[in-house]
Amino acid sequence: MVGVAPHGGERTFEVVAWLSERHLVLYVPEIEAATTAPAMPEAEDAARSLIADLTGLDPAAVRCEIRMGRARGFGGPPAPAV
Question: May I ask the CATH class of domain 9-68?
Answer without folding.
Answer: alpha beta
